[in-house]
């Protein structure tokens, strides 16, 4: 694979076959790097603030390409990004009740940034950091971009210095691979995810309520009144959370009045270690666009942009409305550090955290 030497004073643009990558430094802010990955059908755009995915352009049945992800119309909005559009979330995605847990006999108190809870790594989690671009590679069949961030010991209350890398890999079949790795100097919980919101119409339709969703999960983790995990694992059968066969998001969304839509963690069907599960399939019948999610992670958070209110104008020139997109966040169970029967999320010195998620793009008439 051809390795591209990153030069902060240059722009790399060279077609190396069916799949290639280019980058440029932002005209107004030299800390910001823009990445574009291409194959014959799909273009992926990324900035290094939070490793945010700012564009995924795919064709519909008529060949019309649209950006199917939520993104800000100005790159400086990623400095704050209260909606977590497109970013890598960590050190621990989702909520930890009270921001408190015990680890190896020590009481840990994290920052509390969501009511009484710790959410998505705290006030300045990985989603708000400037990541270092450390590698670009391409060989005509795949291209790879890798970023790194070192989280210091004590950041947002977490123990240990954590070295994290995230690689985005686009292949010539229309699959975007997200590869996570981390190592630590002290035992610490780690739960990384990507928080991209999808609207497969490219926001031509203002909501995703007509999208059909399948989730390969027979169970979900119950939430309590504080919007954190109760510790109970319950069956989806007979509930509005049953997506074992595809159904429209509109079908059960009204059942979740308190959340104002779907905001639920699904327990994915187990697979042998090292294998990937087909976690979810999202389809827009109007355009024919299809998104299939594969992952090594044990769970999937489905969130339907319940608090969007039109105050964000996206890169498509549209105001983002409630239920305007859906996030499919592959992850560990929320609040795993507080429940011994949940899969362990503590990373210890000498171990390597590894996780893979794949977003595969296509059309429903190709299935």
Task: Write out key terms for the chains shown.
367 residues, mainly beta, 6-stranded antiparallel beta sheet, globular
Describe the structure.
The chain has 367 residues and is an all-beta fold. Helices cover 0% and strands 41% of the residues. It contains no helices and 29 strands. The protein has strands at 2-4, 20-25, 33-38, 43-47, 52-59, 65-67, 88-89, 95-96, 100-103, 106-109, 118-119, 132-138, 142-151, 162-171, 175-184, 188-189, 193-194, 197-198, 212-215, 217-223, 229-235, 247-248, 263-268, 277-283, 289-295, 299-303, 326-331, 346-347, 353-363. The strands form 7 sheets. It has a 10-stranded antiparallel sheet, with no helix packed on it.
Q: Helix/strand-derived class? A: mainly beta
Overall pLDDT confidence? 94
Summed up, the helix count is 0
What is the general shape?
Answer: globular
**Side-by-side strand order of the widest sheet:** 1-12-13-14-15-29-25-24-19-22
Care to give the gist of this entry?
The protein has strands at residues 2-4, 20-25, 33-38, 43-47, 52-59, 65-67, 88-89, 95-96, 100-103, 106-109, 118-119, 132-138, 142-151, 162-171, 175-184, 188-189, 193-194, 197-198, 212-215, 217-223, 229-235, 247-248, 263-268, 277-283, 289-295, 299-303, 326-331, 346-347, 353-363. It is an all-beta fold and 367 residues long. Mean pLDDT is 94; it is low at 4-15.
């Amino acid at each position: 694979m051809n390795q591209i030497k990153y030069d902060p004073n240059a722009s790399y643009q060279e077609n190396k076959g069916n799949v290639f990558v280019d980058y440029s430094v932002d005209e107004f802010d030299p800390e910001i790097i823009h990445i574009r990955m291409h194959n014959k059908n799909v273009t992926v755009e990324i900035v290094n603030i939070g490793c945010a995915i700012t564009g995924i352009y795919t064709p519909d049945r008529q060949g019309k390409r649209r950006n199917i992800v939520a993104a800000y119309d100005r790159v400086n909005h990623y400095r704050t990004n209260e909606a977590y559009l497109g970013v890598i979330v960590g050190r621990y995605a989702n909520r930890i009740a009270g921001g408190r847990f015990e680890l190896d006999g020590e009481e840990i108190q994290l920052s509390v940034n969501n009511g009484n809870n710790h959410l998505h790594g705290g006030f300045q989690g990985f989603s708000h950091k400037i990541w270092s671009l450390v590698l670009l590679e391409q060989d005509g069949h795949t291209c790879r971009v890798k970023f790194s961030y070192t989280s210091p010991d004590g950041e947002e209350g977490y123990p240990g210095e954590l070295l994290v890398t995230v690689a985005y890999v686009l292949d010539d079949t229309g699959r975007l691979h997200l590869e996570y790795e981390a190592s630590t100097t002290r035992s610490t919980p780690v739960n990384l995810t990507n928080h991209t919101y999808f609207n497969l119409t490219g926001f031509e339709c203002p909501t995703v309520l007509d999208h059909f969703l399948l989730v390969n999960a027979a169970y979900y983790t119950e939430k309590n009144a504080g919007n954190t995990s109760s510790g109970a694992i319950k069956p989806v059968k007979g509930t509005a959370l049953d997506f074992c066969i595809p159904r429209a998001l509109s079908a059960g969304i009204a059942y979740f009045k308190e959340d104002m839509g779907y905001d639920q963690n699904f327990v994915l069907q187990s697979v042998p270690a090292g294998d990937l599960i087909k976690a979810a399939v999202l389809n827009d019948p109007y355009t024919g666009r299809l998104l299939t999610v594969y992952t090594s992670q044990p769970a999937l958070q489905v969130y339907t942009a319940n608090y969007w209110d039109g105050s964000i104008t996206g890169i498509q020139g549209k105001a983002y409305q409630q239920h305007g997109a859906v996030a499919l966040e592959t992850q560990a169970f929320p609040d795993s550090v507080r429940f011994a029967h949940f899969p362990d999320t503590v990373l210890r010195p000498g171990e390597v955290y590894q996780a893979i998620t794949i977003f595969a793009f296509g059309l429903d008439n190709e299935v």
